[in-house]
Amino acid sequence: MNLELTDEQRMLQTSAREFLARSCPTSRVREAMLDPRPVCDALWPTIAELGWLGLVTPAEHGGAELGLIELALLLQETGRALLPAPLFSTVALGARLIATAGSEAQRARLLPAIAEGKRRVTLALLEERAHWTEGGVTLASTPSGDGFVLSGTKLFVPDADLADELVVAARTAAGVTLFLVERGAAGVTTRRLDFVDQIRGLHEVRFADVSVPASAALGGEGCGWTHLEALFDFAKVALCAEMCGAAEKVLEMAVDYAKVREQFGKAIGSFQAIQHKCAEMLVLVESAKSATYYAAWAVANGEADAHPAACLAKAYTSEAFTRVAGEGIQIHGGIGFTWEQDLHLYFKRAKSSELMFGSPSWNRELAARVLLDGA
Question: Does residue 100 contact residue 230 with C-beta atoms inside 8 Å?
């Protein structure tokens, strides 16, 4: 594993940070908490022009055909800024599944449109039990003529209100099958859920006898869970990169505040207790970045330990981000809990991200299964 970034990778990270500093200040993030669509619609064309939406898309479908490490570098910056747009759900979930599981016709129809910013896609997977397992998929899919009829409810669907298309995991007689469904199709309704993270909206999506053609099946009937398992390692690393960027931003905010906040005639940063907190936060951030980028390298190169590396990175980074966000609030004292401060936005993102793709304990269990089987 080469720890040195290339000039192109540095340029990608630097240009992303500069763009987000100009175009995505916290004031804009807060606007999106009230109404996400105007903010997203304003940012999305420029994001497409920058090539972010086709970063890991094959060149034959209009993408840059870069790798997971480049995507992680980009998402680290969008995590810092709490980008209020469905970049993660579109690129790391929807488009990734289309690229890996879709037919040539599906890839040709959707991937160029996604890269150009004309289509947004998300994944509808979880249901009432919120299990990240094959058995958790129970949404009914029954044959009907030349297609299927979908009936049931999906929960915690990220950015469903902003998506044009949904990749829906349903159960057929052959097993879990993925379907491409238009969000505006007859019988599809979405409702935003009250959730801790008000920036990345999570939704309930109901399917009331929604008819889809057989050509909407992604990756063949009964093959859905195989494709989802392959997606999870990729998506976990992408989410870890987001969390690393956000945690790093919290650390910077805490250090900056400690330099100017005075008690007893001294900046609180001169007190040993505050210095120790900041040092511990730095260790957590850097360790999370190390775990994330090792996992990114392992997944991108198909290493034997890619799956446990992704799971352990998700477990460690989730806990590190939550700890850093909490310590950042502690350093700010009482003002850290107020609505006017931005720290609560990062703490809420930490708690939300901690649950996505399974809790830390669940991911450690997944890693342990692999390690014990190989012992």
Answer: yes
Asked if residue 59 and residue 35 are part of one domain, the reply reads yes
Quick one: DSSP state of residue 4?
S
Examine the pLDDT at 307 and tell me if it is beyond 90: yes
Q: What is the rounded distance in angstroms from the CA atom of residue 255 to the CA atom of residue 278?
A: 7
Domain containing 85 equals 7-119
Of the candidates 196, 179, 158, the residue with the CA atom closest to the CA atom of residue 40: 158
Structure-block tokens of residue 42: 């304003």
Inform me whether the pLDDT recorded for 375 exceeds 50: no
Q: How many Cβ atoms sit within 10 Å of the Cβ of residue 37?
A: 10
pLDDT score at 3: 74
Q: For residue 205, tell me if it sits in a domain.
A: yes
Q: Which amino acid, 96? A: R
pTM to 2 decimals? 0.96
CA angle (313, 314, 316) in 5-degree steps: 65
The predicted-structure confidence for 215-257, as pLDDT tens digits, reads as follows 999 988 999 999 999 999 999 999 999 999 999 999 999 999 9
d(CA 54, CA 34): 28
* Under 8 Å between Cβ of 96 and 263: no
